Amino acid sequence: MQHRATIGDVAAAAGVSVATVSKAINGRYGVGSDTAARVLAVANELGYASSLGASSMRSSRTGVVGVFIAAFEPFSTEVMKGIGVALGGSGSDLLAYSSLTGNEHDGWERRSLSRLSGTLDGAILVAPTVVDLPGAIPLVAIDPHTGPAGLPTVDSDGFAGARLAVSHLVELGHRRIGFVAGRPDLRSALLREAGYRRALEDAGIPFDASLVRQGNYEQKTSREAATALLDLPERPTAVFAANDLSAIATVQVAQTRGLVVPRDLSVVGFDDVPEAARADPPLTTVRQSMQQLGNEAVAMLLALIAGQELRRPHVTLATRLVERRTTAPPSAPPS
């Protein structure tokens, strides 16, 4: 097994004391610039990295920002991209953490934060199930299950986005519009259903509970939901799905039944994950700027780490409709 370089190894190789190495690596006074440069060069050559735990005991900073997610899926992956870009040049390293237990409904955030206690300057929680968390380090929540609460939060306007999606279908002439809903325990899903209902109300279309099925943001459940909708004696001419995964599943179910999208069935999703543009046909969807969610969360977190007061502790980003090739006016009924 390869020997891991220690601070003593660096000191011996550089011909200085351990105290001098410590000062040079941590940027403290008392070390000449030439000596500091030599120490850092030797440390880099030996592959020496100071312990995060030791760093946290020496100072109040570790130089590491954590991102906690329940699972690596399209939404969280896009958010992570935004976080990584926003942290560039900040001097902080990024640690992405998921418990991978598949048990994201029972306060996984508390356990995760506890396990990494003392190693982080602050953390971003993506879609956390709880927000009553210990305040030992600055925390920012992205799209929390319960919506804005005690923690600073960043989310997207799901209500307005859903209203846009369904209004688009209404403007095309659809009156019988199905809905593949998200998880009922998530505020984002409830807002998207509320936007669906409001758009129907705006158009004078009575709400029909038989046209709503739970997809839970999951492919398998969404396929079952789409199957139930398309098996109705009078099936919908259009479907709004609460996320792109559900919308793509709906298109696939329609195609297996010989329906042509959008001639026989129009479909609109929500999120605009990369898979939406690559779908066959490319998916009309509501775009929420997932990478911008990450950007905003980083800006808030870095301000908190620096001891600054947030001017806006709760930020909601706008959504917009992206028209592709899964929506069209309803075809005329056979004569």
TrEMBL record:
Give GO MF terms, alphabetically.
DNA-binding transcription factor activity; transcription cis-regulatory region binding
InterPro entries, A to Z: HTH_LacI, LacI/GalR-like_sensor, Lambda_DNA-bd_dom_sf, Peripla_BP_I
Leader sequence residues: none
Domain (HTH lacI-type) ranges: 5-59
CDD domains recorded? PBP1_LacI_sugar_binding-like
Keyword annotations of the record: DNA-binding, Transcription, Transcription regulation
Q: What is this protein called?
A: LacI family transcriptional regulator
Q: Which organism is it from?
A: Amnibacterium setariae
* Taxonomic classification: Bacteria, Bacillati, Actinomycetota, Actinomycetes, Micrococcales
